[in-house]
Amino acid sequence: MAPQLDPPQTVDWMGKKVPVWGMQTIDYGRLLSHDPSEIDKLVSACTDEGYFYLNLQGIDGRRMLADQQETLRLMERFFAEPIEAKNEFGLISSHLGYEPVGSRTGVAAGTKDGYEMLKVSRDEIQRDSPKIPAAVKASGDLRILENTIGSCNTITKVMLSCLSDGLFLQGAGRFENQHRNERPSTTTLSMMHYLPHEETGPERIGHQKHTDISTLTLLFSEQWGLQVRPPGTCGAREMGFVAPKPGCAFVHVGDSLRFASGMKFQSCIHRVVPFDPTEHRYSIAYFLRAEDDTMFIDSEGRAITAGQWHDQKFKAFTDPEMWQAMAPKSMILGGMKEDGEDEPIKPLMETTAKTAVSTQA
């Protein structure tokens, strides 16, 4: 389904009506101008929900939208390559390299994930000879990655600066001062390709429920499939879709920003499901992460560095499902509490027809 300006309140999915949750829209141009009312909206979105749309349609955001389109074309070329070309270097580290389909736990019980992914770290792209598959380098697409990472880095840093202003932070305590480009971090551009069901089979579905190992996640996808679970204590709030919005990115608060804010901000609990199991789905995520040696107090009250949290949570993502079930939810969900249980997703989709959309008054 294409992005919509006025999305429905519900959609028919897997034989039931599923809510489409609304999101606040923050204007990037106004943040650049440090508009006080827009900064208040930004702080409110991070405090109350942990996710929002970022409107990039003004003159300052259009370059990022152009970079997004170039990156999408790069992804279509790259993921069409043979597995040998895509996996030239393998997974060099947890935040650099290629991950084939089925590397992590899937969204349904007993399944693996349904996507392949190319990850390029910000640290790596700044080196003279980055370890990027020849299928990207030979085509001249390295410039596209450099531009996209640069644009995403600028946008996320602007948001951090505005959040620091909104919380009246000073000096070294400002969020952006824990995210210097020249210091090692696991900041990463991740390009994800969700394959059609007929190519992956029923045992590989979506992306499991989690919060992000990031400070802020800048996410682009023009296709449906992203679901969030709104926080709050006003009864059970089930997982529901969020609609792609033209000219906008999704932004998620990640674990590190929640910790750095003293748990004032919410981390976004989300997952990806096959809304239309017949399509190739593409998404671009920029995970801005704190410098590796940045110290936080995590959801368990432990003093831990950003680098240690990243490595521990990445391992949890790739652990066998049985181990994940025995581990504390504080790792996968970043300590976020849930008000209810989600209805299980069936491993085998009962239909591959395109999902119809209905509106509920």
UniProtKB/TrEMBL annotation:
* One of the record's GO molecular function terms: oxidoreductase activity
**In terms of domain of life, where is this protein from?**
Eukaryota
Record bears the keyword Oxidoreductase: yes
Report TM segments.
Answer: none
Q: Name the UniProt key words of this record, in alphabetical order.
A: Iron, Metal-binding, Oxidoreductase
Give the Gene3D superfamilies listed for this entry: B-lactam Antibiotic, Isopenicillin N Synthase, Chain
Q: Which GO terms describe its biological process?
A: small molecule biosynthetic process
Q: Where is this region: Disordered?
A: 341-361
Sorted alphabetically, which InterPro entries does this protein's record hold? Answer: DIOX_N, IPNS-like_FE2OG_OXY, IPNS-like_sf, Iron_ascorbate_oxido_reductase, Oxoglu/Fe-dep_dioxygenase_dom
Stored PROSITE patterns: FE2OG_OXY
Every copy of the Fe2OG dioxygenase domain together lies at: 184-290
Which residue intervals are annotated with compositional bias (Polar residues) in the record? 352-361
Regarding protein family, the annotation reads:
Belongs to the iron/ascorbate-dependent oxidoreductase family.
UniProt name for this protein: 2OG-Fe(II) oxygenase family oxidoreductase
Q: Which organism is it from?
A: Emericellopsis atlantica
